[in-house]
């Protein structure tokens, strides 16, 4: 019966595609062909008949996460007073090929043994005031959509080109400073509108400069280690699970392990410090911002095995965003905001809008208005993250299907009765498996019976 599909008229084919994309919930065509009227059944039929290729992913459509680039006019930066920090070296340290550099770091040695850490963030809120057309469009997206075969920005590419750090000789920024002692304690924090001069480097290049003993990078490493030690003493959790870089197109999929040089940890810790510093500044000045909070872990998990890290992640409650400060227990911080990605995450942009209003002597959004923005953007960002996860799994299974005879090493990271969860580090892929193997066991498996519409795959122990 499926052979009839190529002879269907365009309207009937469109009907099946709409169901596969989650744009309608019924299909007379599928019903007449004897198929169930589900997005998965429609997807399977389109694959079998060659209407869709295996590269086609419908998950963003189903979750209402837009894949259409935003094309709105971007205003120029306003002419306003800024602190000139162009005398400082500043580095935007990212993965190779990063297209939206929105944060950078600088370091200064101060009298009395203090070190001033600067985290500069692209001043996106200068171009995207609350309730502007750009703001409403960004809120409707919630976050930038990163798929293995495409990226759809939360904001227009033209804004990224205008505001991205290191894309021009100097850049406007919102800069968070923390004066830290040798143990990582903060003596003072501040937030200012600045002008910075930023050099872009990759993690690999930054790691080479650290390994060569260049003083600024060694100082950043020292601060990051001290900060991490302090947070761990307050209960911060360390979770280290495999990550891969996944790229896909019509011709195939490539999967490579994500390198984890220490400079990646250093930059992450600097961004965490910036979020902590911005939260302190907002709280001290009574500025309503979306504080990121998290409850205590449900239980304590010790050990550094993959299964321990997997279990530790499962103990974490979901991060909540609220107008009032509260502890983020997973980070070991008494208060925290996300502030370093305003081009990619809407709630970071809200933090910038609120801080910028205060710095300009204007009234920030009232807490109740901001709370409604948090709720709307949170739903849209959730859809974006779900679409990313489903699309990554889809293309990972495409890669698996292209290597049917290959053996993979998997680790049993969880058990529920006779069922286990197997994690294949080389693919960052987890899947269910019926096995009596104990937690932490290493198994050699082949992967087959890939079913893309249901994102299913079967593991067979060798």
UniProtKB/TrEMBL annotation:
Residue intervals of the RNB domain: 82-361
Q: Which GO terms describe its molecular function?
A: exoribonuclease II activity; RNA binding
What EC class does the entry list?
Answer: hydrolase
Supply the alphabetized keyword list: Hydrolase
Catalytic activity, EC: 3.1.13.1
Q: Which InterPro entries match?
A: HTH_RNase_II, NA-bd_OB-fold, RNase_II/R, RNase_II_C_S1, RNR_Ribonuclease, WH-like_DNA-bd_sf
One Pfam annotation, family name?
RNB
Q: Which GO terms describe its biological process?
A: mRNA catabolic process
Q: Which Gene Ontology cellular component annotation is one that this UniProt entry carries?
A: P-body
Q: What is this protein called?
A: Exoribonuclease-2
